[in-house]
Specification:
mainly alpha; single chain
């Protein structure tokens, strides 16, 4: 990977990390990535995540 690409990705990661997130946006993002179902359960490929994720509704 080019040095410039690494810098851009690092910058993007820092920006994303610093953005304020609300629960609805996070859930929508996980659903669009097919990680969560509409009922907010983990999909088959990600079912092991329920062991490590604390759910705060």
């Amino acid at each position: 990977m080019e040095t410039n690409q690494v810098k851009l990705l690092t910058s993007l990661a820092k920006k994303i990390k610093s953005e304020k997130k609300d629960r609805a946006k996070v859930v929508a993002s996980l659903q669009s990535a097919k990680i969560l179902t509409k009922k907010e359960n983990f999909t088959g490929h990600y079912s092991n995540l329920k062991k490590v994720v604390a759910v705060a509704k």
